[in-house]
Write a structure and sequence with these properties.
The protein is of the alpha+beta class. 30% of the residues lie in helices and 34% in strands. The chain contains four helices and 23 strands. Strands 2-17-21-20-19-18 form a six-stranded antiparallel β-sheet, with no helix packed on it. A six-stranded antiparallel barrel has the order 3-12-15-14-13-16. It has a four-stranded antiparallel β-sheet with strand order 4-11-9-6, with no helix packed on it.
């Protein structure tokens, strides 16, 4: 069967040719399939002298707070302020009906004049008695009585003048003024009501600038600050106005600067915290007593810190790590201990050296044991002071 043999030979030759062709193309195809090493940005970490800041939450409180009450009783005649306005020290707030007090002043003034007339008569009688005693026309006891009458008249004048001063003082108390500058609350009593002295609360006034900020620090922080002070690395806030920074609920960063003003003299045994206070200027009245804020307090002496961007830090379960460039451009895994955040940068406390070259972008492209193509990058220090 010559036809079948010829066909079998042709099929065999074709198969051999295909195998040879496939074997010849395999190396070229393998080279074309392998991708180049992934590109990543690398840089040495940023080294800067910085200071640590500790963060606390707290609320503002007025430096001066006055409950306005009357020193005399009477009917409220007028109210001379608008609710919620800023008032100046000495500004008139309330007037109590002055007519009874004016009458009291007139009565006391009349008593003074009467006492002065009595004294004048007593001095005249004493002078006459002295002449009569010299002539022997009156006894010594009568003369002594005239002396006592003059002394009593002098005392009566002193009493009447004191009563006049008291009446005038009560009259001034009918005009109630604010003892401090600040923002006033609403009126709590309407005109025509009877006001009781030292009892009826009329309104309150709170100072606005400067203003206090109160917060609580725990025992661990207190001990750390105490030991830093003892080592001469950071002065105690009891003795020095250490700087503070503050942000409000709707703000980014810490745009407001102030200073420490006070630290309590004991630790609260119930909470294990100690109350501290900072002070801020408040010219625009942005800060209000009771307003919540977040405060940063200088917490260390200056030190050299290693900083890397957040994009350079990876997470491996509960550990943090960075990739350091090794030989043949193969990244090496290194665990690190993180410090505080500074803008887009993070302080590295342990695990990294200043001369290490780390991957700052492209962490997801790194495969264990596989090389990468490093490209020189740069760490932006712009947000370091935030």
């Amino acid at each position: 069967m010559p036809g079948l043999g010829s066909k079998a030979l042709s099929v065999g030759m074709l198969t051999a040719m295909l195998l040879v062709s496939a074997c010849g193309e395999e190396p070229g195809q393998a080279n074309a399939i392998l991708p180049p090493p992934p590109s990543v940005l690398v840089s040495q970490p940023l080294v800067r002298e910085i200071e640590d800041w500790d963060t606390y939450t707290g609320r503002f409180g007025a430096i001066d707070e006055v409950e306005v009450r009357s020193r005399v009783s009477g009917y409220l005649q007028s109210i001379d302020f608008a609710d919620g306005q800023i008032v100046d020290k000495g500004q008139l707030l309330f007037v109590i009906d002055q007519r009874p007090f004016l009458i009291a002043v007139e009565r006391a003034s009349a008593n003074v004049k009467e006492a002065e007339a009595t004294l004048s008569l007593a001095e005249t009688e004493l002078a006459r008695a002295r002449q009569l005693l010299n002539r022997g026309n009156i006894s010594q006891s009568v003369y002594d009585t005239r002396i006592q009458e003059r002394i009593a008249a002098e005392a009566a004048i002193a009493v009447s003048k004191a009563e006049l001063d008291s009446a005038n003082l009560d009259l001034t108390y009918t005009q109630i003024e604010t003892p401090i500058q600040g923002r006033i609350s609403r009126q709590l009593v309407s005109e025509g009501n009877l006001i009781k002295s030292d009892d009826t609360l009329l309104t309150t006034v709170l100072s606005t600038s400067p203003i206090y900020f109160y917060f609580e620090a725990n025992e661990a922080d207190l001990l750390r600050y105490t030991r830093l002070d003892a080592a001469g690395q950071r002065p105690s806030s009891r003795d020095a106005p250490n700087p503070v920074q503050l942000q409000l609920l709707d703000e980014e960063g810490y745009p407001h600067s102030g200073q420490m003003d006070f630290v309590e003299n004991r630790v609260d045994s119930a909470s294990g915290t100690i109350t501290a206070r900072a002070i801020f200027d408040n010219p625009d009245g942005l800060f209000l007593p009771g307003l919540f804020g977040r405060l940063r307090l200088l917490g260390s002496a200056p030190y050299q810190a290693i900083l890397v961007p957040e994009s350079a830090i990876g997470t491996d379960q509960s550990y943090k790590f960075v990739y350091v460039m090794g030989e043949d451009n193969i990244p090496l895994y290194k665990r690190v201990e993180l410090g505080e955040q500074r803008g887009d940068l993070r302080v590295i406390l342990e695990g990294l050296q200043p001369d290490d070259t780390i991957i700052i972008e492209g962490l997801l492209r790194v495969r264990p044991g596989a090389p990468v193509t490093p490209q020189e990058g740069e760490i932006d220090p712009a947000g370091l002071d935030q």
